[in-house]
Design brief:
7 helices, 179 residues, alpha+beta, two-stranded antiparallel ribbon, 3 domains, 4 strands, single chain
Length: 179
């Protein structure tokens, strides 16, 4: 299938268009890779001036309303300035949840570190911290029941070596609760 148009016809259409998409519309052709590449070859062959073609456009982010630049062919698809904004608006992943909406580990960690320093009460490790439910009831998220421990000492609390650190943990709880 050979596409043939005379030079004047192409030049006039190029002058009245701002992009290859508009050019394709003038000739009732679908916007796809085949026709875009064919028309690019024709425009190049006839040495038409396309310096006025828009390559980018401005769009407002649907989350933060910031104006950002997009390639014209993406203008209808791009709605957010960044992946962070897309996640916050669409998935809600980056939006902090209220405590009552949290459950499981996220909830008890939030409560624990609101009241306790984020470091092991036995060895002061602060890089990797677990939260231990002292009464071993995972439904009891009272700050007095949540003890920050490094993973090693957390394992001690659930093993036959509990006696090695139990006094230090009890002392911490006593000091936390106050007189």
């Amino acid at each position: 299938m050979k596409i043939t148009y005379n030079k004047n016809e192409i030049e006039d259409a190029v002058k009245d268009s701002k992009s290859y998409t508009e050019l394709l519309k003038k000739f009732n052709k679908p916007k796809n890779g085949f026709y875009v590449s064919k028309f690019k070859k024709i425009v190049e062959e006839y040495q038409c001036d396309i310096s006025h073609f828009e390559k980018t456009g401005k769009v407002n982010c649907q989350h933060c309303n910031k104006l950002f630049e997009v390639m014209l062919h993406d203008k209808s698809k791009r709605k957010f300035c960044s992946l962070k904004c897309a996640n916050q608006k669409v998935r809600g992943a980056a939006i902090p949840k209220k405590e009552e909406d949290l459950y499981g580990e996220k909830k008890f960690r939030l409560i624990c570190f609101r009241y306790h320093e984020k470091k092991c009460v036995v060895c002061n490790e602060s890089n990797v911290i677990s939260v231990h439910h002292y009464d071993e009831n995972h439904e009891n998220n009272d700050p007095k029941n949540l003890i920050p421990l490094c993973p090693t000492h957390h394992v001690y609390m659930h093993s036959k070596f509990k006696h090695l650190i139990d006094e230090k943990v009890k002392e911490y709880i006593k000091n936390f609760m106050g007189p």
